[in-house]
């Protein structure tokens, strides 16, 4: 049984050592960012000519100014410092709806892109992503609840290490309650955002690269507790245990084995924590 803590938050290489040239930025003709669906103007992990681990801050500023959907957005730049103070740690460019909990952003480390996070201004579904990119190599469920006002929100992260891609979908959302009886992994689940990191050959290495501040032991512990390392299939029904309050005691979500694909037909327990 794999234990997965339900918590808050390519480029397809056919040879291991393919060198990817930096694409020439192209101006989009309208105010919609359709890159998640069109794979244009370049294949992931490249987004609009920007590549994690390669593109510099100066080049990013130049590229962003060619994009019509970016130039019409409100945006800001910030230096982000470690919580203990000291030297500048990262640089962050944000844009989009300021009320969005997850605005689009590009994070830099030592003047080079570390990761890209995009909340696209188009609609897309889990079915769209499965059709374009195939089944994810692993998933993570996020179970968020309200503190001052009751609500429950369940999202799914789908991981594609060889693309450097993580896509987040909303599976369930309800105001006025802290619990969910069941959540189905449905092809119509709405996509919320996607992020791009440096591609990796396997899921565990990819997850560790997403959390670079973790030690090796911390990364391994996070992987074993939070990540389910295969695709459970559409229709996997997740059942919650209402007996406990999510903050005080984790709520257990268990996938019904009969609804899983044959190779995944085992108990899948998912705990918030």
Please sum up the structure shown.
The protein is of the alpha+beta class and 273 residues long. It has one domain (2-272).
Percent of residues in helices comes to 10-25%
User: What summary fits the major beta sheet?
Assistant: 8 strands, antiparallel
The percent range for strand residues is 25-35%
What is the rounded Rg? 19 Å
Number of domains: 1
Number of DSSP helical runs: 6
Rounded mean pLDDT is 73
Oligomer: single chain
Q: Tell me, what's the shape?
A: globular
Q: Which class of secondary structure composition applies to the elements?
A: alpha+beta
CA distance, first residue to last residue: 18 Å
The string of secondary-structure elements, in order, is: EHHHEEEEHEEEEEHHEEE
The beta-strand count equals: 13
Widest sheet, order of strands = 2-3-4-5-10-8-7-6
Residue stretches low in confidence (pLDDT < 50, at least 5 long) are 1-29, 81-89, 241-273
How would you describe this protein?
- It is a single chain.
- By secondary structure, the protein is of the alpha+beta class.
- The chain has one domain.
- Helices cover 16% and strands 30% of the residues.
- It is built from 6 helices and 13 strands.
- It has helices spanning 35-38, 57-64, 68-71, 126-133, 203-210, 216-226, and strands at 2-6, 75-80, 90-95, 104-109, 112-118, 138-145, 151-160, 165-175, 182-184, 190-196, 237-240, 252-255, 268-272.
- Strands 2-3-4-5-10-8-7-6 form an 8-stranded antiparallel β-sheet, covered by helices on one side. A 5-stranded mixed β-sheet has the order 1-13-12-11-9.
- Strand 4 (104-109) and strand 5 (112-118) form a beta hairpin.
- The protein starts with a strand and ends with a strand.
- The model is unreliable at 1-29, 81-89 and 241-273 (pLDDT under 50).
């Amino acid at each position: 049984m794999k234990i997965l803590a339900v918590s808050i938050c390519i480029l397809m290489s056919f040879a291991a050592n393919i060198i990817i040239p930096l694409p020439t930025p192209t101006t989009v003709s309208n105010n919609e960012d359709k890159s998640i669906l069109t794979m244009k103007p370049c294949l992931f992990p490249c987004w609009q000519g920007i590549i994690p681990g390669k593109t510099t801050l100066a080049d990013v500023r130049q590229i962003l100014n060619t994009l019509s959907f970016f130039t019409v957005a409100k945006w800001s730049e910030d230096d982000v410092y470690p919580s203990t103070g000291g030297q500048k740690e990262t640089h962050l460019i944000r844009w989009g709806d300021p009320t969005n909990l997850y605005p689009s952003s590009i994070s830099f480390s030592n003047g080079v892109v570390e990761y890209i996070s995009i909340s696209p201004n188009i609609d897309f579904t889990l079915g769209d992503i499965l059709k374009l990119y195939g089944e994810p190599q692993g998933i993570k469920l996020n179970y968020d609840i309200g503190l001052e006002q009751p609500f429950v929100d369940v999202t799914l992260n789908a991981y594609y290490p060889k693309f450097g891609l993580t896509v987040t979908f909303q599976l369930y959302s309800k105001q006025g309650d802290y619990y969910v009886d069941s959540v189905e992994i449905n092809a119509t689940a709405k996509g919320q955002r996607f992020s791009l990191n440096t591609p990796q050959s396997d899921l565990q290495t990819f997850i560790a690269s997403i959390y670079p501040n973790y030690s090796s032991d911390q990364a391994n512990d996070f992987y074993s507790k939070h990540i389910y390392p295969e695709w459970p299939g559409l229709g996997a029904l997740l059942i919650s245990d209402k007996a406990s309050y999510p903050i005080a005691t984790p709520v257990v979500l268990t996938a019904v084995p009969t609804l899983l694909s044959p190779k995944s037909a085992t108990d899948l327990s998912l705990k918030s924590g």
